[in-house]
Design a protein that fits this description.
Blueprint lengths: L17 E10 L2 E11 L4 E5 L6 H6 L9 E6 L2 E5 L2 E2 L2 H8 L2 E4 L11 H12 L4 H14 L15 H13 L5 E5 L7 H16 L3 E5 L3 H7 L2 E6 L2 E6 L1 H6 L4 H12 L2
Parallel strand pairs: 3-9, 3-10, 7-8, 8-9
Antiparallel strand pairs: 1-2, 1-4, 4-5, 5-6, 10-11
Helix pairs in contact: 3-4, 3-5, 4-5, 5-6
Length: 264
C-alpha cells in the first residue's frame, strides 16, 4: 500500500473553489483514496491523470457527492459538502449541485427528449425559469458547442461527439461555478474526440473552473494550469504541465508518462 501523500494545487489569490483535506474513501477492504489534500482556485483548469484504477473518477465523484467520503473535509463553492464522514442532506446537496456541472463518460441524455429539451429541462424544473428564457439560453449554448442546427433533433440521431457536446451544453445551462469532466472522450471514436476537446478548450479560455480526468495528454499539456498525477489512491505529484511532462519528480510519474506517450 502506498503511503498517503498530500499535493496542493498551485496557490492563487482568493478563496479556493475546491478545498479538500484528508479525503479518504474505501470500498470494503479496498482503499481507493488515501488522505488527499487538494485546492482548486477559481478559473483554474486542473487535469487529473494516472493509470486505470488509481482513484481518479472516485476523487472527482467525491467533489459533487456522488460518492460519500469515509473521512476528511470536502468544501466546494464555499459550502462544506462532507466533513468527518457526514454529508449534506439531500436538499442541500441538490442545491450545491446547481453550482457543479458534471460530464460523464456516457452521455446520459434523456432519449425521449429533443436536444433543446435536454438542455432546458434542468433550468425549468430546478430554477423555475420560463421555457422562453431557457430556450433562448439553450440556443446560445448550442451556438457555443457548434450544434444550433441540431436543436430539435433527437439524441438517437446524433454522433457520439455531438451527444457529448450536448451533454456539456446541458451542464452549462445550470450556470455552474465548477465543471467536472470524467473521461469525457473515452467513449468516442478517435475522429470525434477533437470536437469535444475543442469545446473544453473554449470553456477554459473563457475562465471556467474545471477539473478534468482524462488520458488526453495533448489536452493536458495545452490547457491545464495544474496537472495532478494519481497512483494507488494518492496524489503523488502536481504542477504545471511543462514540469510534469518534462521534469517529473516521481519515478512512477515518469513510468506512467513513458507508457502512455509511447502509445500515441
Amino acid at each position: 500500500m502506498n503511503t498517503p501523500q498530500s499535493v496542493i494545487g498551485t496557490p492563487a489569490a482568493g478563496k479556493p473553489i475546491v478545498n479538500i483535506r484528508g479525503l479518504r474513501k474505501s470500498f470494503g477492504e479496498h482503499v481507493v483514496l488515501q488522505g488527499i489534500d487538494f485546492d482548486v482556485q477559481p478559473s483554474q483548469v486542473v487535469v487529473v491523470i494516472g493509470p486505470s484504477g488509481s482513484g481518479k473518477s472516485t476523487f472527482l465523484r467525491c467533489c459533487n457527492g456522488l460518492e460519500k467520503p469515509d473521512s476528511g473535509r470536502v468544501e466546494i463553492c464555499g459550502r462544506v459538502l462532507a466533513d468527518a464522514g457526514r454529508m449534506l442532506d439531500d436538499q442541500a446537496l441538490n442545491h450545491l449541485r446547481e453550482d457543479v456541472g458534471m460530464v460523464f463518460q456516457s452521455f446520459n441524455l434523456f432519449p425521449h427528449l429533443s436536444v433543446i429539451d435536454n438542455i432546458t429541462v434542468g433550468p425549468r424544473k430546478v430554477r423555475g425559469l420560463s421555457r422562453q428564457q431557457t430556450e433562448a439560453e439553450a440556443l446560445a449554448l448550442l451556438d457555443k458547442v457548434g450544434l444550433r442546427q441540431k436543436a430539435h433533433a433527437m439524441p438517437a440521431s446524433l454522433s457520439g461527439g455531438q451527444k457529448q457536446r450536448v451533454a456539456i451544453a446541458r451542464a452549462l445551462a445550470m450556470q455552474p461555478q465548477l465543471m467536472l469532466f470524467d473521461e469525457p472522450t473515452s467513449a468516442l471514436d478517435p475522429e470525434l474526440v477533437g470536437e469535444v476537446l475543442q469545446v473544453m478548450k473554449l470553456l477554459a479560455g473563457e475562465g471556467m473552473t474545471m477539473m478534468v480526468v482524462t488520458h488526453e495528454m495533448d489536452f493536458a499539456r495545452e490547457v491545464a494550469d495544474v496537472v495532478v498525477v494519481m497512483d494507488g489512491g494518492a496524489l503523488i505529484e502536481a504542477g504545471p504541465p511543462d514540469i510534469i511532462f518534462t521534469r517529473p519528480t516521481q519515478a512512477r510519474t515518469r513510468d506512467f508518462l513513458q507508457a502512455v506517450l509511447s502509445r500515441n
